[in-house]
Amino acid sequence: MPVSMDALADDLAAESAALRELIVGLDEAGWGRGTPAAGWTIADQISHLAHFDDVAVQSATDPDGFRAELEQAVAAGGIDPDAIAQRYRGRSGAELLAWFDDARERLIDAFRGLDPSLRVPWFGPAMSAASSLTARIMETWAHGQDVADTVGVQREPTDRLRHVAHIGVGARAFSYAVNDVQAPTVPIRVELTAPSGAVWTWGPEDAEDRVSGPALDFCLAVTQRRHRDDTALEVTGPAATQWMSIAQAFAGAAGTGRKPGQFA
Question: What is the CATH number of the domain that holds 147?
Answer without folding.
Answer: 1.20.120.450
